[in-house]
Design a protein that fits this description.
This protein is mainly alpha-helical. The mean pLDDT is 87. It is rod-shaped, with a radius of gyration of 25 Å. It is built from 2 helices and no strands. Keywords: Membrane, Transmembrane, Transmembrane helix.
Length: 57
């Protein structure tokens, strides 16, 4: 039984390696998208603040 499990260790390691690479890629994809949304929101807030300042002054 022990000999049988050692044959699949390389395949398991390779599968875990590719799975981790995929998960890291997905994480960075959504992290970059989240940062883009935050940048857009901050820019919109700055535009609203400048428009309000123009209306007040």
């Amino acid at each position: 039984m022990r000999h049988l499990s050692s044959k699949n260790d390389g395949f398991f390691s390779l599968s875990v390696y590719f799975l981790l690479i995929y998960l890291i890629g997905v994480y960075y994809h959504y992290y970059n998208r989240f940062q883009l949304v935050l940048d857009i929101r901050m820019n919109l807030i700055e535009i609203y603040i400048s428009r309000i300042d123009q209306i007040i002054n």
